[in-house]
Protein 1
Amino acid sequence: MEKENMSFEEAISRVEAIVRELEKGDAPLDRALGLFEEGTALIKLCGKMLDEAEQKVVRLRKGADGAPEELPFEAEDTGC
Amino acid sequence: MDKTILTVSELNAHIKNLLEEDDLLAGVYVRGELSNYKIYPSGHHYFTMKDAEGALKCVMFRSSAVKLRFRPENGMKVIAFGRVSVYPRDGVYQLYVSEMTADGVGDLYIAFEQLKEKLLKEGLFEARYKKPLPRYPRRIAVITSGAGAAVRDIIRVLGKRWPLAKVVVLPVRVQGEEAPAEIAGAIAYANRHKVADLIITGRGGGSIEDLWAFNTEIVARAIFASQIPVISAVGHEPDVTISDFVADVRAATPSNAAEIAVPDRGEMLEQLLNYEIRAVQALRREIQARRRKLEDLSSRRVLISPKNYLDDKRLLLDNAQGRMAAALERILADRKHRFAAQAAALDAMSPLKVLGRGYAIARREDGTVIKSARDVSPGEKITVRLQKDSFSATVDAVSETV
């Protein structure tokens, strides 16, 4: 999977799998090194996602064809 | 006139039968005020319910009394549920109370209890229907009033803890006649269009009437039918609604719902650091293990000094060489010896040596050696070879014997 398109959940799940495998300690050294490198890169990616995330809030409205339409959310909206 | 005479017991039994055949009296809600409330050491409760015009004797047995969610006191307005029957020993009828609630809300409370009972029997609250919440939700649908404090609290807490999640607000009315249908409709809509992987629905605190939409069957069934996990967050901590029972997770307040919905960014960063440390340690262990293995191997004699190994081999070679040389010498000596012996034998057999002892070889003129007198005729010329020279002769006579 391309790292750039990974969701946080996919990235963190991969990190967890890598740490588990490394801790099992039976991978050949070159594989262990590869895993380590991949793991550190993913940890960095996760940290970046957490650091740079900006909350997005939208208000959903039923569009003309019934499909949802996203509008900016104003806390003063009443009803729909 | 024929008079039927009954005993007291017979009459009491007859009245008891009459009362127990009546459907209404088999299970009835009664509203009234408590008086003369007594709790016996047996754990049974005896009391009277009354209103402006009348009084009703009541008993609540221990098994029901332990389920009371409040402490009954004289003067308290209550709603009791039970059956009416006769206590034959005293000849009085009384209400055998199985449930009793404080009468603050009246009809709503009964409706609540009835719906709760109904849905409980249908199994809507069962743990096996509870869906797990996503660990890291990507989109969270918030179904509540777009104007209340609840939506602001939820957005604020989600933003602080987990800004990765997109918040999708579906504004609905949360009180009034339209509220139940709007809430249920929004839950169904969110599912139909898969707008989120988690739903939070609820509202801020209020009276039981204000919270009522979350005690309606239509909302309960919409929550139950939702494929998307639902966190219910209605009112304050002590408020419990039917929605809370049927939701996958009940939150005490809207802010609490947001806390339950997402992990905390700070904790997650710590967790990441922890993973990093574990990865580093695991790799370090791997490398150390290999280094130890290497040290272990290199401490063996052969590898400590390759010269030792070579010396061994050299010794082996020298040894072989020595043995080879000795063998060769032996062979040569043997051959020399055998050659000398044969040379001596050969020498002994040399005809010249025989001639040296005074023998001669006689040959005919064609060179053939004369081995018998019959080989020659008288008058034939022959050559006689001595050790050092020769001479010619003529055969004089041939004799058959020596």
Note: DSSP finds 13 helices and 13 strands in chain B.
Protein 2
Amino acid sequence: MTLLRHLAVAVIVGVVIVILSVRLNAFRDYQIAEVACYVVAVAGLTVLVGLSGQLSIGNGAFMAIGAYAAALMTIHLGWPPEAVLVASAAIAALGGAVVGVAAARLHGPYLAGATLMLAVALPSIATKYSGVFGGDQGLSVSLTVPGFLGPSFPLTRWQAWLTCAAALITLVLLANLARSRVGRGWRAVRDDEVAAERSGLNVARLRILAFVVSAACAGLGGALLAVTTSIVSPGAFTLTLSIALLTGAVLGGLGSLAGAVWGSLVLVFVPTYITDVAASHGLSSSTGSNIPVAAYGVVLIVVMLVFPDGIQGALRRLFKPMTPDAGILRGAPRRRASASEHQEEGST
Amino acid sequence: MGQFGELTLGGISFGMIYAAIGLALVLIWRATRILNYAQGGMAMLTTYIALTVISHTGSYWAGFAVALAAGLVLGAVIERVVIRPVENKPPLNAVIVTIGLLIFLEGLAGIIYGGQFRSFPAAFSITGLRHGSLGISSNDVFVAGAVLAAALVLAVVFRYTSAGLRLRASAFNAQVARLLGVRVGRMLTLGWALAGLIGALAGVLVSPSTFLFPDSMDSIFVLGFTAAVIGGLDSPAGAVAGGLILGVVLNYVGGYLGADLVPLFGLAALTVVLMVRPSGLFAATRTRQV
Amino acid sequence: MSEPAAALAVEEIVAGYGGVLALQGVSISVRPATITAVLGANGAGKTTLLRTISGFVRPRGGRVMVDGRDLTGRRPEDMARGGVAHVPEGQGVIAELTVEENLRLGALWRRGRAVRADALAEAYQRFPVLAGARRRPAATLSGGERQMLVIGRALMSRPRVLLLDEPSLGLAPRIVTQVMRLTARLRDDAGLTVLLVEQNARSALGIADKGIVLNLGQVVAAADAAELAADVGLRKHYLGF
């Protein structure tokens, strides 16, 4: 039943996107495609952080893995894009398994620190082995419109369709996963790992699985980004990207798939808007390009302080019965022993 | 003095910087169980402030003093405004807030000061600041000495003063401390202020070598974090030891194997330490009270 | 029944955690230089009562008055400075600090080095065993010694009222007797006012002047300790002996 409902929603959204892509111009189609790429990656991250409670500030590295895999496969193997996308996701998933196993027993700052190192160190591999990876200039990826769509079908529209289809499929799969026993297991581990262990859950396996899933999503997002932007270079996958993904997930609402969509919309549209505004006010380009960075930071802080449930949480509160329910249940936050707060109602 | 000796001494100098950042991280971790990802960013900002003072007054020491004072203030303000609300929330919130703080500070610095690399003066003669040189420079001695002095002063404050007793009590058992009349909130602010101070010190000491730009403290932070992890996040002495070891070893790598291998080696070091550190470190804080 | 001379008065306290009300309108009055025992089964609300008085739990209704001053809703550190010393369940020794540091902590908020030094000297006089262990980490103390330490530490602030939460927990019977005797002596010699929460009702009633029995967050009995001890029906029903 849930699967049908998710599929129905996906189909409806898909139809809307098709209509939009035809009515909007090429640049807007490109932006739609961009959003879809981020949705895939942010959704994976929001599942990892929001559902399984593991913080990663390194998912940009998995995007890089997916992107470079896609580029290399397209260039050297000439596979069709569908196959490339799936294979890239799989390769990134493998990376996620490795990291997940290594990080299985890390928590909190140790985990975040380890993923931070990953985000910082991985792009440098592309520069070190520039023969294979194209160094700082990177590799270019070409995407061709399939024949059956006709010779005058715009590339950007095809990109929008391809990426959005991938995004919708991913969202449906994630939504089902979140409702399944695995999803419940993740939430149990997130809320109280010791209790989860005691009640028989294989905590390590669940945590690794969450990493694999989020890495696969990030890898798919990276591959999609590769075919959308037509280029992969180390400069596109810095720590800033990992933080941007986290910002999108937090802003949209951790653990919420609909939130991943809101967050991705913000990620794509707001920085260019801000930069445009800054440029139109005559601010220098370095100032203009730093404003989104400072804004990311403020967003993260303000959201965490004021409305930790993000956009989706705020929507849910405003429109209680009518919220688009992506099927993710959020558990109550754990309380730590109070260090400085006068407690409203004590702690057990 | 052979290359080994020079590398060792140069490594000690850098190591003390990592130790300082590590020390600041441990300070905050012990007091609030939060890892301050913005530690490097705070240090970067106070160093920019120092640079502004220096270029206006022509005096290095004025800038030095202002940087330290700014570190104190910045740490206190950050704790009070940004951190206090998330001290009792799930740890994830604090991590995201400090990361947000980090990129806000970096963006802010980019807006105010621009992204170009700036040179920052050293306190004393810097000839021989980089590895592969002849002998050790007076600045190296100053760096090591300053951090050591700061660490010692902190140790004395913690061990022998009433404020230090309150700080320790607040960190070890905040609830009991409050029952005894300790204003734990103020102690936390003080802890962050001290961490800001040490971070500011690290910033002005290392910036002559790394140049100053919004992201300049990122790698220093990561290595400082590694130092703290090596020593154990709960141990200030461990952070200092970890920093020294890391600084020296990385300098050997840079000197004997090539500078471009240093970041990868740092990554490997951190990975190894995180793997080897018994999960018992965190198991202690995660035992359930039945 | 509140008397103007009460050292501690709790009026119609309503308090709880989340959706559960642990205290539903509890009133207690404690005269100076007396020991009042708060008894009852587990979950009756005894510990919540103390935590409300000392400020860890903000009451949803009612008042907490110390020496006639309304201190309701103050934070723990302010309650402590207001004359309420709470020795929590499990003692609350700060294990990483030394014995002397633990003691000194209790008086740090008091002004004047001489005042603090006197308090420390007095603590060592009262508890010679602590004097012998002053430089040792508090973690190395035995159960009974720890109990001495936390009581001594609480006394360092010259409190108006001492809240003792389950001092007998985890202690051998012989030590329990020692602790109870000590508490009684503090009342007799130093005029200390004590609110004593105890599972071990028998030993508590042995030294108490008054007894209060809590059940499910309400006071079901309040009388002189001797009366309570003699009321076999009540004892059996609520106190288990």
Note: The interface with chain A takes residues 16-18, 48, 51, 55-58, 75-76 of chain C (CB under 8 Å).
Protein 3
Amino acid sequence: MCVTCGCSAGKGTAKKDGQRRAAGASRRDGSPPDRAPDRRLLRLEQDLLRSNRLIANRNRAWLDHMRIVALNLMSSPGSGKTTLLERTIADTRGRFALSVVQGDQATDNDAARIRNAGARAVQINTGTGCHLDARMVARGLGELAPEPGSVVAIENVGNLVCPALFALGEHVRVAILSVTEGADKPLKYPYLFRGSDVVIFNKADLLPYVDFDLDVARRFVRSVAPDAVTFVVSAKTGEGMSALYDALERRLVRTVTGRMAEACA
Amino acid sequence: MHELGLAMEVVDSVAERAGGARVKRVVLEVGALTAVLPDSLRFCFDLTTEGTPIEGATLDIRRTPGRARCRACAAELVLERPFGQCACGGSDLDWLAGDELRIVEVELV
């Protein structure tokens, strides 16, 4: 089985599980197993997102093995995901290595921007697809070959709806909301914000010129994602970015030293 | 339009289990708190089943309601949307049900 890309594996395993369960197991509600020898009725009880999740789990296991911290960056188009990465690459050079899996429907403009900023990047074009899935990311990681003990940022397709459903194998889910958007976006797109570990309010340099109320936005984030950590930054001016780098570095150190402790135990 | 990807997953899984037999009905469970629109899923299902043994099958979507428990007072509440507020004022909720997204069963012709 291919560890990185899992190209032939995911589906086969998924189906075997489904068959086993359908063949005899009791139902979830405690009613007896398929009493019917009615062969026209097949019980599947199969999670629709399972094949994606299996591949995501494999991505995660590989990343853990490589002591890599992976971020899934999600936002609407134009909120500043790529600018945020460019700035981070420039400011953290020498502190930790960062490479990027870039998802867009078309063009490799963003990957080119990342490379110009001095980091390695792989572009995935989803074509008509509105989100990245675990299989695409597996392929991207294989091509990117990130170095051990580094950070991989996966920049999802700019979309606040579809990426929410698809785990990629990331360790940290990051939602980015720029202050030129409505402060109520966390309520309007609750699925995406609900699953986020970190919410970044970007373009803070524009706060004096727009009606964005940070307190209200924070309250809305809390109401859908009570455990999410928030940051207020301007990727353009650099304001607030150092707190983000510190948090990222702490996380990376924990990943790397955690593995070392494991190895020594 | 992530429903298209899900519909394709349904068709692949059902076709494999049915082993070439014609399918009369597919039953899905879609929780009220998933970001999945039943109408959109139905539309995509009709498109993706064309030319397969599943073409013409009824898609039966069972919508399970959302339920959550308040972390502040442990009360249970019903959720229509993926967030809400408990009577005690708490909005820090653990989901109990409503995020199901499953193929339940398939009926062959």
Note: The first strand of chain A starts at residue 41 and ends at 47.
